[in-house]
Amino acid sequence: MERVTFKNEAGLSLVGHFYAAPSKSIVIMTHGFLSNKSSSGRFDSFALKLQQNGYNVLTYDCGGYGESDDTAIHFDKQVTDLQAAKQFSQSLGMERFAYWGHSLGGRLSLACYQDDIDTMVLTGPVTGAIFYQHVDYFSQEQITQCECNGSMIFYVDDPWRSEIVLDKQMLTDFDTMDQQATLAGVHCPVLIIHGTKGALEQELAQITKQGLNLFPEGSKLIELDGADHGFMEQLDEIETLGLHWLHQQFALQ
């Protein structure tokens, strides 16, 4: 694994981990809300397994997260971050691309689809509008701060930073996702994995089911019984499912 840096269109430095393999096929992994390139260890484990199976892998911190440059986060900024990650991958000589996203990273993956994306693996993805209060607990103090200052601060348990600044726009971003318009722009098979446990994951699964007919042909929804939004007890199973899917949909080049 190699620590790498690259710039987004705003000139911010983004930090990632690149797992090199003897192919020109790469899986770009995008983390969820208030997370980082490790994704609580999920991506570290998945990336090593994929690398061992011949896939290059790039994990990265969106701007304002982890080791990347500071900025107040909102969705459109993170879209440009994933686009920058793909451009960086191209600069490394990669020619075939797959996206792997967790939670909000799943929505980012869908929003950033381009014709050269062969497939996606999404765990607990946000596939439609969801009330921001359902995503995380926002205290009244934070809401007031956000209304007055245009942003709020989250203090996080992160090896690289102590706080993440949330732009007020992010609250609207959760509430206003157009599921039909987003999924209409995706033209590759998608593996969607949801759990059955916990209010957040159950709501996200229901949102996905409401729009399941909008996903491209060949897409598949798998529900893991007893899994919550973190999937921390099912990582081995997700690793196996994801790798099997990639072997089917994303042959090495």
Care to describe what's here?
- The protein has a single domain, classed as 3-Layer(aba) Sandwich (Rossmann fold).
- The protein has helices at residues 42-52, 75-91, 104-111, 132-135, 140-149, 169-175, 179-184, 199-210, 235-249, and strands at residues 2-7, 13-19, 25-30, 56-60, 96-102, 117-123, 151-155, 163-167, 190-195, 220-224.
- With 253 residues, the chain is α/β, with parallel strands linked by helices.
- Helix content is 36%, strand content 23%.
- The protein has an 8-stranded mixed sheet, with helices on both faces. A two-stranded antiparallel sheet has the order 7-8.
- The chain has 9 helices and 10 strands.
- It comes from Listeria booriae.
- Residues 22-128 form the Serine aminopeptidase S33 domain.
- This is Serine aminopeptidase S33 domain-containing protein.
- InterPro entries: AB_hydrolase_fold, AB_hydrolase_sf, Hydrolase_4.
- Pfam families: Hydrolase_4.
SSE layout and pairing:
Layout: E1 2-7, E2 13-19, E3 25-30, H1 42-52, E4 56-60, H2 75-91, E5 96-102, H3 104-111, E6 117-123, H4 132-135, H5 140-149, E7 151-155, E8 163-167, H6 169-175, H7 179-184, E9 190-195, H8 199-210, E10 220-224, H9 235-249
Parallel strand pairs: 3-4, 3-5, 5-6, 6-9, 9-10
Antiparallel strand pairs: 1-2, 2-4, 7-8
Summarize the structure.
This protein is an alpha/beta fold and 253 residues long. The chain contains nine helices and ten strands.
